[in-house]
Specification:
about 200 residues, mainly alpha, 9 helices, Arc Repressor Mutant, subunit A, Rna Polymerase Sigma Factor, Chain: A, about 75% helix
Length: about 200
């Protein structure tokens, strides 16, 4: 009976995901044809998620707000030349990430700005509190988790954030982080392994 319930649940999830993808494609098609309401609906649907992700990367709210506005303006201006996308959310996150990287790189005026941003600055973001999977833990457990979480490399934290907060696919996360899907799998597998090891009771 349990297996049947799991099968039904997975079937419903697959059906919901397929329906969502179809709706997104319809909205994207309307946008490409010049439907301003389609652009507005995308803006309302994804603004909060984009802002939350952007602030964790850039830490400057006004910069992130401007970047999001510029991104949607660019999409509107280039709508006729837009290609089809498998995931609108992944497309928007990739575009915002690149836009923020480019802006911060210009501000710093250093050849190593991109590396500094992706490696050093990200080290202090994507905290334990950002992961909904840990939201219901008891206070004592939260302290242990927080201590363990800080010991996980920044890129693994980012992958966990993208996976846990909206269940993005490996392919979508790979596009956002500019790595191969297998690298994302490795990040997540290693992150879970490290957490399990760090949280294991002393022997």
């Amino acid at each position: 009976m349990k297996n049947n319930n799991v099968s039904i649940s997975n079937s419903l999830e697959s059906s919901d995901k397929l329906e969502r993808i179809q709706k997104e494609r319809q909205v994207w098609a309307r946008l490409k044809k010049g439907d301003a309401q389609a652009l507005e609906s995308l803006f309302r649907a994804y603004y909060s998620y984009l802002f939350d992700y952007g602030v964790k990367l850039a830490r400057e709210e006004e910069l992130v707000k401007d970047a999001i506005q510029e991104l949607f303006l660019y999409i509107w201006e280039k709508r006729r030349n837009l290609s089809s996308v498998d995931s609108i959310k992944a497309y928007l996150l990739v575009s915002l990430r690149r836009r923020l990287l480019n802006t911060l790189s210009k501000q710093r005026r250093q050849e190593t700005a991109h590396q500094e941003f992706t490696v050093e600055q990200v080290d202090n973001v994507f905290t334990l509190e950002d992961l909904m999977i840990f939201a219901e833990q008891e206070t004592f457990e939260q302290k242990r988790l927080r201590s363990a979480f800080k010991k996980i490399p920044a890129r693994m934290r980012e992958a966990l954030y993208l996976k846990m907060n909206d269940n993005l696919t490996y392919k979508e996360i790979a596009e956002i982080m500019s790595v191969r899907p297998q690298v994302v799998r490795n990040y997540l597998s290693e992150a879970y392994h490290r957490l399990k090891t760090l949280l294991a009771p002393p022997t």
